[in-house]
TrEMBL record, chain A:
Protein name per Swiss-Prot or TrEMBL: Cytochrome b
Chief place where the protein resides: membrane
Entry keyword annotation includes Heme: yes
Organism lineage: Bacteria, Pseudomonadati, Pseudomonadota, Betaproteobacteria, Rhodocyclales
UniProt domain Cytochrome b561 bacterial/Ni-hydrogenase: residue ranges: 4-174
Organism of derivation: Azonexus hydrophilus
Cofactor: heme b
Residues passing through the membrane, by range: 12-33, 45-63, 83-105, 138-158
GO molecular function terms attached to this record: electron transfer activity; heme binding; metal ion binding
Automatic annotation (TrEMBL), chain B:
Protein name, UniProt field: Polyisoprenoid-binding protein
InterPro entries hit by this protein: Lipid/polyisoprenoid-bd_YceI (IPR007372), TTHA0802/YceI-like_sf (IPR036761)
Domain Lipid/polyisoprenoid-binding YceI-like: residue ranges: 23-184
Signal peptide: 1-21
Gene3D superfamilies attached to this UniProt entry: Lipid/polyisoprenoid-binding, YceI-like
Organism: Azonexus hydrophilus
Amino acid sequence: MKNHYTATAKALHWLMALMLFAMLALGFYMQGLPLSPEKLQLYSWHKWAGVTIFLLVLFRLAWRFTHRPPALPASMPKLMQLAAHAGHLALYGLMLAIPLSGWLMSSAKGFQTVWFGVLPLPDLLTKDKALGDLLQTVHVSLNLLLLVVVAGHVGAALKHHFIDRDDILTRMLPKRTQEN
Amino acid sequence: MKRILSTLALAVALLPLSAQAIEYTQVQAAKSSVVFTYQQMGVAVDGHFRKFSSQLSFDPAKPTAARVSFDVELASVDTGAPEGDSEVAGKPWFNTSAFPVARFVSGGVKALGGNRYEVAGKLTIKGRTQDVVVPATVTTQGNTAIFDGAFTIRRADFSIGEGSWAKFDIVANDVRIKFRIAATGK
């Protein structure tokens, strides 16, 4: 019981996993499209979803700070524990930095972000082409980095499950799939 | 008679301006600008044109005799994104290879009082001509007159954005055009 994440933490984890993969796919797909009304629509949706994810991450962080996650197994070497914490820190950092970089890129490129077409986010940067291009590179690079860290995250979870045979993966799964 | 009187009153009101008897004719392109704003899925997006030229004559003593023509090189558009620039130069939008220039030619000028005027004229874009009325203000500083104004056109009136762009759900029909013309006198 104690060794499980809360239902809310699990729901947030898997919801964000889905959203991040959908957003990565959408992001890489849409930027290669020729300019069309559909492309502009996809960009707007991507930006709306990005703002939504950012807010979900904030909520998730607040939840995590008020609901202590289960401790790592004592059998884990200290160095591995440190690596696990660093990996999670990187994931949270990227989940915050990526939408921020997208928002700033939009501002610098002169296309304001208006959440669901209703709530305008302030433009923190004024229109500046060079800065916009730089932030685009930053946005893309951070996403590539996210892909690498997520691959490590998934790989580590599978290693824990199939090689270490501990509960690291199952404690993030819905209860009924639990073995004990 | 009434009209003559009001014209006289206007002329008197404008006397201090005309004291130098200056006529503004030399357009200063570097100090002038043409900016446009439109809505993209409800979000205001703006751009501008880098190249344009204007012929203008404005005598503060005879403002209603003012004349102006304005040519915008449509291929010099800056939408904020290179792919946007090449897209709007293409056939569905400006079709700049067939219609390189947008032109405004003034007809009558109406004084609205103070430094406010209304310039009626014809705007031709992409081979289509529409009557437009352009409100403008004039500010004079030394031997320079600054003309500021803004008006709204509907892009569909000029077939700007055809085919898949013809609907207004992504790119709105209304386009707000803001201009500044600086002209020196002699």
